User: Fold these one by one.
Assistant:
Number 1:
Amino acid sequence: MSSLSRALAAAAVLAAWGCQVEWGGGQISLENPAPPPDTTATAAVELEPEQIPLPIEPHLYAVRLDGSGTARVVPIAGLAIDEDGLELDEIAIPDDEDPSFRARYDSVFLAAGTDLDLLARGGRIGSLILGDVAREGISGCPSVGTGRALLLPGQDVPAYAFAVPKGTSGVGAPARIAPVESTSSMGVAGPVLAERLIGGDRAFLARIQSLTPVELIGDTLAGMAATWMIADSLAPGPPGQQAVSLFFMARFEPTRGFIPVWEEVRRYSDAGNKEAIEFLDWIRIGSERLDIVRRYDASSVRLASSVTADGEDREISWIEPPECATLARLAR
């Protein structure tokens, strides 16, 4: 190969790398014709937050009603339903990790026009049609929405109810559901049960704070749910010394009287340990029963629930995060 041929071959190789070549006293600048890689798009993709997937399970909603049918509504838990039964899952809104999550979540679970089954007192009392989203979003908690309750004529309207997607509860068509009436025997049996369940030499100091007649599945006679306290009350304020709270649910058996089926006793020495429980309502999801209660501590009132099938032991199995305080947000 001649010297000229060798020089041209070298120049061709170097051209691919974008170099300057000296040849025969002259200088030739050789540039790679391929455009430089575009790093802008890659950087933009890397900087964009990853979208967190939305939950796919149906949700349970708490609803505040007024006499005109206007409602405020907020999702409070996911309903995990499988062969092992029902569990309530916490709902978290990751605003910091994914700024788009709340808007996407609201567009699915608080979408205007969504038709929900409205539940109270163990049955279905009507339907709830969702409206606008108020977006009173506390960081980490679902937004508050609005709605319109469609109830049967003559239905007694509770202050609070609950809602699930249509068909989720399995309770069928709406029906008029009247409050369960209290009986004189509840007033007689209540103090006796309270002293026995609290125990100790101070049990006689317990004072009733709340009593609600309740229906228990399979019973024809009303049971009761009651809250008794020593040196404290359900009102705001610090407890007294050596305070005690008792919550119990009891069924009525004609031959034995009231038999406790769920009790929660708490003993606390200061406001930081306070925990008192008050019955709110119960609903049915398939074969499962959700008894929903208010849980009072030193600074907030939170929703909590016991999920049981008929005959199972009852205990609090779900409680909402303290920052969400659903009842207070619905009351605003």
Number 2:
Amino acid sequence: MKLQKYILPVFVGSKLLAQNEASWFPQINLGFAHAVYNSTSFKATPVELAQKEFHHKRSKVTETQYGFGIGVFLWMPLNAGIVFKPKIEGTFSTTCARHAKAIFATAFDLSISHGFAISLKSPDPHGVIYAAKDMSCYLTTKQPYLLIGPRLNLKKFDAGYISKGYQNEFSYGFFIGYGINYEFHGTNVVPEISYGVSSTAQNPIDGSKKVVHTLTLALNFF
């Protein structure tokens, strides 16, 4: 009887310890990202003007922006095929508004995105990167994935741009991209390319919301 009284608490305590070690997510990693990007806004030419001048038939660029960003993200596997990737990023850029006279400005962007990485196939345990002739690098795994999700962005212009009547911009949109997860024996290097579309009510074009198209190249580490 005395032995049973002592054995029962031992098994109960072991069970509780096992439950505390369990997690909703198999593994959560903190990562760092460096990206370069280019954004463009287009303005549709009215039909009557396009009929008058042939070279005006295409949409023209009204604003361009290029720069680089540094951010942090979480790599949170939800299951074997989907990873949740929330990310916060700060970007520095140069903007050119092409009106009767081009206006240049510098800007700082704070971007928050909630991406989902959807694997396109199972991890390749025999992945190889061919760096040059007769040279190769063997990987732990290699896995391509599709990246998609919403994005919020707050853009702050410099004083020179604001003094000309422009406003700081808050935009929202979505992005879609493609990436490959290369694992080098515990360290993951992930190149990505993505395309995003966002809209803002500030600084409208012809009285309508401005739509921005962005192409981004990023290199992630975790």
